[in-house]
Amino acid sequence: MADYVKVALDGMGGDNAPFEIIKGAVEAVNESSKVKVFITGIEDTINEELSKYTYNKEQIEVVPTTEIIETAEPPVMAIRKKKDSSLVKALTMVKDGECDAYVSAGSTGATLVGGQVVVGRIKGVERAPLAPLIPTIEGVSLLIDCGANVDARPSHLLQFAKMGSVYMESIMGVKNPRVGIVNIGAEEEKGNALVKETFPLLKNCPDINFIGSVEARDIPYGMADVIVCEAFTGNVVLKMYEGVGGALISEVKKGMMKSLKTKIGALLVKGALKETLKRFQTEEYGGAPMLGLNGLVVKTHGSSKAKEIKNSILQCISFKEQNINQKIKEKLALDEA
Amino acid sequence: MADYVKVALDGMGGDNAPFEIIKGAVEAVNESSKVKVFITGIEDTINEELSKYTYNKEQIEVVPTTEIIETAEPPVMAIRKKKDSSLVKALTMVKDGECDAYVSAGSTGATLVGGQVVVGRIKGVERAPLAPLIPTIEGVSLLIDCGANVDARPSHLLQFAKMGSVYMESIMGVKNPRVGIVNIGAEEEKGNALVKETFPLLKNCPDINFIGSVEARDIPYGMADVIVCEAFTGNVVLKMYEGVGGALISEVKKGMMKSLKTKIGALLVKGALKETLKRFQTEEYGGAPMLGLNGLVVKTHGSSKAKEIKNSILQCISFKEQNINQKIKEKLALDEA
């Protein structure tokens, strides 16, 4: 058992908990013999779900908890008060070294706060960013930070750039990943105060492959592998993906229902269209890691189904095997030397 | 002639100058007898273009200038040095009261700087925002500010909300326009420092119809008529429209070329698709007004064709007829009373 990558899974978090969460856990252990999942949550409920499936019993263990954190609860209070919740228990198992990683589809706020407060940051890491993969026409890019630290400082963004580079290189296999900073123009003198201060730090950093400013317009075209920004901006980028994509698609569908001719056409292109759109949905790329913590914390979408839970659990294996945290420590320390 | 709405048009600005610019001017005067266009630029070039068209000669006048501001020029320097450029001359005509409005497809930076420095702000207006109309599945919303003032203060955003409300009500005919502030969550306690400080100002303002936070995801669905944000955020919102829309469409097209079946389908839906996509392009909605100046300054896309130039010129008629600047003065003064 010592050889397993141990994942603490919040069994009660997310819109589709516990059904899809448990299903995802089962699918993960059935796909990989390297992982053991500790599911936190109401014991009877989880066991009842688990009883529906066939899997290697050694790879899943239920960790009973009695409380549940709701999505709308104020995160700081929830973390502090609900010690016996599925979410806090899972985080605590990572903190105590009983697990290597945490996966939850529950409250984003509570995960972000709990990641910092319960699991804690690697010494020297100033802020821990949330870094989802976003689709581009070339593949995927890492958006860092997308919601963990609003009003970040230049030194934080520099660390994000380094941690993001480690992730893209080690987990996604992108050699010498291109780092860009989100800006309102391509020229170096453009930007707000934060970007203007951060730009020279990135430019003069020998440990990353900085390519300069990236306008939001160019993000979906895959202009950079690591998209550095402050969390407010990152959140807007991520949400605009969802919003523009969703609205456009609903309009396209409406447009195709206008006449018999377009309806027939729609039938013929339906499959291809669906496939394309799927590729452009941010939900397709599994959970977003929170980097720079003493252990891996992965936040999956609130609407996660089994597939995303499974992918998020399997993602933890690479993270452990690639020894990402050691690499992050080295990358950040390089500078201090 | 005293009755004309007088528009100073930068004849040399934009990717398609002077051809499409002149064509747009001619189309505008041929469509409306209320407007007179003063085209600034190299006299011979402009006259040569004009000679190709039939129009009421009284409605177009050429104002000779010798210099041209290029898109890439540092704006402040360009405004200061090139007094005899088509762009500065057009702005000066508004400043001197010879024209009511300015329209240019040239350098955004020079227009923004020139708007503030040459034309000048209405007394009491702290910052003049650039406010384009953006498409939604319900119609259009006004995005204010989208690039003029990065690192704005809460009091600026409050004025933007008021000016935007006047514009949407008077020009777009939206009764009691809903004002929302771009935020990273719907709850009042969410946001960065700027949003948290601005929120109560908007909430307690009796002169606007404030509906609270709007997540970026909801913007394309038409959640609010006036979308208030700081310019960096506004620029990201606008550019993500272009980026996600463009990338998605190119992927959809690629997907439809995959097989004979999808190719036939594509032929059948092509027209409907094109129409839908056109509705979702930000270029379709004419120029973006810069509000709060002593005269109207309209910035159209660098890639503007005649149609956008024509629409931007005609837009100036409503602006004058509706007496927007007087209404803005009243709206802002209301608070000081």
Task: State the distance separating the first and last CA atoms of chain A.
Answer: 38 Å
Largest sheet of chain A: 6 strands, mixed
As an assembly, this protein is: homodimer
Number of helices of chain A: 11
What is the rounded Rg of chain A? 21 Å
How much of the sequence lies in strands of chain A comes to 15-25%
Spatial order of strands in the largest sheet of chain A: 3-2-1-4-11-10
Basic shape of chain A: globular
Low-confidence runs of chain A (pLDDT<50, min 5 residues)? none
Question: Helix and strand succession of chain A?
Answer: EHEHEHHEHEEHEHEEHHEEHH
Q: Based on helices, strands and strand pairing, what is the structural class of chain A?
A: alpha/beta
Number of distinct beta strands of chain A: 11
Which percent range fits the helix content of chain A?
Answer: 40-55%
Mean pLDDT of chain A: 91
Largest two-chain interface: A-B, 63 and 64 residues
